[in-house]
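Anyone? Bumping this.
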Amino acid sequence: MIPEFGHLALILALCLAAAQAFFGILGAQRNDLLWMSAVRPTAVVQALFTLFAFACLAYAFLVSDFSVAYVAENSNVLLPWPYRFTAVWGAHEGSLLLWVTVLGIWTLAVARFSRHLPLEFTSRVLGVMGVISLGFFLFMLTTSDPFTRLLPPVGQGRDLNPILQDPAMAIHPPMLYTGYVGFSVAFAFAVAALLGGRMDSVWARWARPWTLTAWLFLSFGITLGSWWSYYELGWGGWWFWDPVENASFMPWLVGTALVHSLAVTEKRGAFKSWTVLLAIAAFSLSLLGTFLVRSGVLISVHSFASDPKRGIFILAMLGLFVGAALTLYAWRAPSLTRGGGFQPFSRETLLLLNNIFLVVAAASVLLGTLYPLMMDALNLGRLSVGPPYFNSVFVPVMLPFLVLIGIGPYVRWKHGDPKATARTVKIAALLALLAGVIAVIVAGAERGLLLTAGVMLATWAAASAFVEPVRRLRLRLQGRHSALPRSVLGMSLAHLGAGCLVLGITVTSLLGVEQDQVIAPGGSATVAGYRFDFQGVTTVDGPNYQADQGRFVVSRDGEPITTMLPEKRRFSSTETTEAAIHPGLTRDLYLALGNSLDNGSWSVRIEYKPLVRFIWLGGILMMLGGILAASDRRYRQRRTEAVLDASAAASETGGGAKAAPHRES
Amino acid sequence: MWRYLRYALPVAVLLALVALFARGLFLDPTVVPSPLIGKAAPAFSLPDLADSKQTLTQAELQGKVSLLNVWGSWCVACRDEHPVLMQFAAEHVIPIYGLDYKDDRQAALDMLAKQGNPYTAVAYDASGDATIDWGVYGAPETFLLDKHGIIRYKYIGPLTPELIRDDLLRRIQVLQGEP
């Protein structure tokens, strides 16, 4: 019965989403108070039904109800229970259910935390989110129903894809989806602004915390994914420019641009139409990511469902949602007022450059991802675009971008003073120079310009991030009043994270050592000064697999360091490689077991990865920065003021709500 | 005017992308076109599997529509495919030639003895050198040749009864109608 309840809940949620969209958008257009006040409760109940459906599927997994086809295909009685839960989103149907569930949670959050916004605006936002929910419910119920029964039921279940049986896998997709789907809120805010014809700094202030929250989840999701592929896929890489990675990276790049451009719109009332366009683009790229993964148009290690019917549906949805939003944009954006002017050397200019670099980077990733498809569609042959392309277009764009990170925060709005900026960032520049010199001394000048440039720019970004917090703290120590708001601290932390990330990438890529060796038991290998003594392979049993476990004693200059136990696990259907990793802040040792050869020796991959942890540390710092910035006081405290501004602005545009827009506070 | 067009640019980009994806959906990324289609069968001179004194060449494939199936006894997918080939051979539509590739002669003969022999003749390519000329990078692969010994179609992977019924037979009919 439970799966039927879940199915029914999905159908009810679909109906409610339709009502939410209808009353939300038309209610605001007609200025109908009754219709508009129905939107919030409808949205809340819709979201609760969705959560209930998710709980039903999770229950079917936990009790191993193999009469549900999706459960039978992706679970097994032997699967440990935490993985039975995470198996809910282990394949196509459940991933979609997770998608709408996350959208439901965002809907609840918007319904709860938007009480201080004008009713008309909230109605539109929830209405647009209702349209998105409606599209995905239709998609699920027509092409990918997770509750389809399997008659007669099977006894065992086929088991979850072994590479997905991992703790990080438990949280990677939900985090990524929270980010992806979170951009739907920014998208809904943008469309609501275009529909209502009001778009100003108050709007930007409402949109900022939502955008930041989506962005920080996406940052965390991508970081987790990178870490997961590093230790689980057995390749020792942390980024592959795989189409599906790119699919999450493009919305991140555009989302980062959006976070910065919203700052300009909030503080200076400028870049309005650009900000709206970025908000639409960020969510469009999230939808594009869903399309690329779910339709199978591109081959990738990640795609687990390809069915042309599904692809056509998502494509139609993408075309309709984004097409409608962009048409609205083409119609309404020309009438948006322009913000205040600014001098060539001003924070506006630098943020504009920031946006240009980020959007160019996103566009080049998009081009590289779609190029094989374009060639094929035009019958020009088949080819694949790999890391050489991405690295050679991405690095040159990012280098000047990093220069900007260090200066941007220290240039005044509207009219900057180059001398004052130079004084402020002097120390950071000196530190960067010093780091460059150290890099040359440690690694040798022959290691190249790229290493020196990377290390210098990373240090520059990281060191300059401290300048503002340190300045404010010193003022405070001198007894003067100086606030250190969370938004400033958050920005500094995120920029520090960018510095760490770049340092990690530069040093790992250029100074890391990788060796494939064949070692017999009793033999040893030496990589980057570390000696690996191979003591042999034993067979060990896991809960639902058997593994060959290698034993390597690692030492350096005769000092024992650790024992590493890489495994090759055999599941009922496939094998996975569990690399052994000895982590350290300054370097990782990475060891993966290859194949056994006839004479008893094994092929082994040994890697020395200096500063690889800085890559993920950088991602985590960016996420923490996002949390700080999103929780800044001014998004919480200025409620009353926002309401006043809003009513003033609404009456200005002439189309203001007849009813009092606020029911609370 | 330009001011308004500029704002319409994003919609135009979107439309182009949607058109591209719509086209992409109907392309199969696993199909790799063979440069050999439309070309004469590559020349080979190989011993017969059953009788190593006999030599088989591409001339064998002239004069009738025929199928060339690349296989090996070591290839699990070929074993799966074998009953399908047996069934097809029993219908006597066109002759099937085998190209046994990187195989042990005895193992191959054992397999044919046990599971039946659908092939009119089997060329034995122990080194795999001749098979490389056919652009084969995995077994099984199947080539359809016309009456002039020109390769007209190639299929990678095991043939299935559905594929033969829905696709291959139609192609064979077309080729048999040609002069």
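Late reply, but here is one note on the structure posted above: Residues 79 and 544 of chain A are 7 Å apart (CA to CA).
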